[in-house]
Amino acid sequence: MQEAINVGLCGLGTVGSGVVKILENHKRDIVHQVGCPIEVKKILVNDVNKKRDEAVDSALLTSNVEELVEDPEIDVIVEVMGGIDGTYKVLEKALQNKKHIVTANKDMMAVYGAPLLQLANENQCDVRYEASVAGGIPIIRSLTDGLASDRINKIMGIVNGTTNYILTKMMDEGRTFEDVLEEAQRLGYAEADPSSDIDGIDAARKVSLLSTLAFSMPVDLSDVDVRGIRGMSYDDLAYAEQLGYTIKLLGIAARGEDKIEMSVQPTLVPHSHPLASIKDEYNAVYVYGDAVGETMFYGPGAGQLPTATAVVSDLMDVVKNIRLGVTGRSSVNPQYQKNLKELDEVFSKFFFRLEAEDEAGTFLAITSEFAAHDVSLDKIIQMPKGNDKTAEIVLVTHQASRAQIDDILKKLESLSVIRGIHSYYRVEGEEEQ
Ligand SMILES: NC(=O)c1ccc[n+]([C@@H]2O[C@H](COP(=O)([O-])OP(=O)(O)OC[C@H]3O[C@@H](n4cnc5c(N)ncnc54)[C@H](OP(=O)(O)O)[C@@H]3O)[C@@H](O)[C@H]2O)c1
Questions:
Q1: What CATH number does residue 46 fall under?
Q2: What percentage of residues in the chain have a pLDDT greater than 90?
Q3: 206 has catalytic annotation
Q4: What is the 46 CA–ligand 1 centroid distance (Å)?
Q5: 171 and 292, same structural domain?
Q6: pLDDT, tens digit, for every residue of 172-203?
Q7: Rounded to a whole number, what is the distance in angstroms from the first to the last CA of the chain?
Q8: What pLDDT score does 1 carry?
Q9: Which atom of ligand 1 sits closest to the CA of residue 50?
Q10: Number of domains in the chain
């Protein structure tokens, strides 16, 4: 039997415990595939005295990171502890000491991915981060391996389980955003501070990671146009439903010629679109390739064992490379300079929900603003609202640029017949005729 490859595991929480379980439960198959045992030599935790699963040997625990990154017998650091700046420092030290990295940390990768990969190249080390996007779905490997020969033109996906859970419950049970968020926090689907999920930041980190790979362009979180679902009204979902759409928080990254666009925003998709049927905390990523056409990847976006599966598969990949003596050769620097589309180059259909005075001339005043900006309308609903001479008007435009839509919004805000602009969202996909 070949000598074992030793691992320093940073973190023994939800994902870390899953990693230990998979390494133990699937030991025989793993050894068969990689050709040697994989041993966890040290585990970094915050509190070594905390009560833990009995399956873990307490002699492995330490709160001293030096015992992992300075140990010459440790070959790979598996980082599943979270954190950004401090964690990057740990991984930087590990790479300088020629240790390979496997991480599930999208927060850190979205900020420090580029320098980390650069440092790995300089030290002939591997860095793998499959679990950082969509948990158990092997989307990174699909882009870098399975679809490597294709030219990816668009990625569109539900990459945040918490917001998909909230939108599903609001729609299916007719409940308010606040009510479902409170339930999600109670059930552990949402954090005590849910901002990163509901404001779209978590999804935007994943979109920036996927875009860097898919378009071979160095982009980061600040390049993504982000709008979350905080405070979304049930009425938006109900009107969308009436028009044949479901609202999802979609991460969208698309390439046109040599420029790309990236956004995270609530988006209407037709009921017939596969993304419309992704419910609860599940994730799905749609990839459009020049040659392959449309492909969709679906599965659990988080959770102990799905995420740990991605981490251990990455670890096995690194171990195979160590044994073959080919580490540090698989990461490719981005091929293109960053080139982002301007707002007048980003096109889609748009949904608007407005409140306006219910009197003659209102409709004409509103539709004239769209016509004045050369934007035509695809669908319109007008409903009287209560007895106070107010009407709710819901519109879906044909294709328009973000710049045109921003201008129309400004004009509508200043119209005397408008009492409020409740919402406006992007619309994707073609409806069935
Ligand atoms: N949970 C998921 O489903 C999921 C899915 C995809 C990606 N991820 C990512 O995986 C990572 C871990 O998530 P998790 O849910 O497993 O977290 P978690 O349950 O909170 O566990 C974190 C672990 O790391 C240890 N730790 C944290 N900060 C530390 C520090 N500064 N020094 C030493 N030890 C430290 C903790 O020690 P103690 O045990 O002593 O507190 C704990 O064992 C995060 O980056 C997360 O974004 C998680």
A1: 3.40.50.720
A2: 88
A3: yes
A4: 10
A5: yes
A6: 999 999 999 999 999 888 889 999 999 999 99
A7: 62
A8: 65
A9: 40
A10: 3
